[in-house]
Amino acid sequence: MTQPMNASQLATALDLASCSVPVLPLRAGKLPFGNCAACRYTACGGRPNMKAAGPCQCPRPCHGWAAATTDPAVLQSPGWTEAWRQAHAVAYHPGGARLTVVDLDDADAVTWARESLPATRTVPTTRGEHWIYRGAMQSANAVRPSVDIKSLMAYARWLGPGTGTMTDLPDAVRALAVKEPSAARPAPLAITVPTGAGGGHCRHRTPAYLDRGIAMAEQRITEARSAVHTTVYRTFLAVLSAHGRCGCLTDTHIGRLFTAAQAKGESPRHCTDAWTNARTRLGL
């Protein structure tokens, strides 16, 4: 039986699009839909991911945040209709609407914002609040404990219009994304590369084991609060060290890892580079 389309979510998306807010559907886990086969691994050149939202001509919501669109014809097209059937939430691209969301993920972060940032429109979330300012900037994760900035090249879940008067993006928020240079270098990661089984067979190769491993890798990336680049690379390294020599990994598994990384702000090119570097490190 065909799953019915979530008419309420689509109606919300169309309302936002009519106000020039680029929108996209999210699947379970607050994740965007993965790239289609034609665009996976930057086969399309990666340009839709690196520039303004919506230039991709894919027939379904592809390229994470850069799939966000204000075109009602696209939002209601057959490929997108199928995505709405699977969608769990509506997201929007704040930078595409010239907005910045300060994502406060717990009560301590909310207290800090009330003491440190100019008042603006606020939206309650499951664990904290979104503070929305007028103006776009670079996005940044973990600028403070439990504080992320979502604007350009990022998406935020739509949780309602919020309350309060939206104010201009203050310098205090822009300053949060400026990282202090550090002379410290991370300690090298010790890796044990398993011996590959002959004939491409893996002694671990069961659907439950592989799915659990990929799910844990996705969770590790999704829950990263700092050093996202490093977390993505080390997660790729761990997955490849377990399954890189035995033929277990499929395009679907790799696509899931790339999608999780892109949801944390990594570009497809960064994902590809991290994957390639991990393979090189392991001699694959």
Low-confidence blocks of residues: 45-54, 181-200
Give the neighbour order of strands across the main sheet.
5-6-4-8-7
Distance between the termini: 43 Å
Helix tally? 10
Biggest sheet: strands, sense, closure?
5 strands, antiparallel
**Proportion of strand residues:** 5-15%
What Rg, in angstroms, do the CA atoms define? 20 Å
Overview of this protein structure:
This protein has ten helices and nine strands. The protein has 284 residues and is an alpha+beta fold. A five-stranded antiparallel sheet has the order 5-6-4-8-7. The radius of gyration is 20 Å and the shape is globular. The model is unreliable at 45-54 and 181-200 (pLDDT under 50).
Task: Summarize this entry quickly.
By secondary structure, this protein is α+β, with helices and mostly antiparallel strands.
Helix and strand arrangement:
Blueprint: H1 7-18, E1 23-27, E2 31-32, H2 47-50, H3 72-75, H4 78-86, E3 89-92, E4 99-104, H5 107-116, E5 121-124, E6 129-134, E7 140-144, E8 147-150, E9 156-157, H6 171-176, H7 207-222, H8 228-243, H9 251-263, H10 268-282
Antiparallel strand pairs: 1-2, 1-3, 3-9, 4-6, 4-8, 5-6, 7-8
Helix pairs in contact: 7-8, 7-9, 8-10
